[in-house]
Amino acid sequence: MSAGETTSDSIDRYSRQVRFPQLGEAGQRKLMGSRVTICGCGALGTVLANHLVRAGVGHVRIVDRDFIETHNLQRQILFDEDDVAANLPKAEAAARKLRKINSAVTIEPVVTDIDHTNILGLVADADLILDGTDNFETRYLINDAAVKLNKPWIFGGVIGSEGQSMTIRPGITPCLRCLIEDSPPPGMTPTCETAGVLGPAVAVIASFEAVEAIKLLSGAYDALNVELFMIDVWDWNFRRLKVAGLLGKVDCPCCKHHKFEWLDGELGSHTTTLCGRNAVQVAARRPEPLDFLEMARRLAPVGEVRHNAFMLKFAAEGHEFTVFPDGRAIIKGTNDIVKARTLYAQFVGS
Question: Which residue among 98, 128, 241, 317 is the one 20 to 30 A from 44 at the CA level?
Answer without folding.
Answer: 241
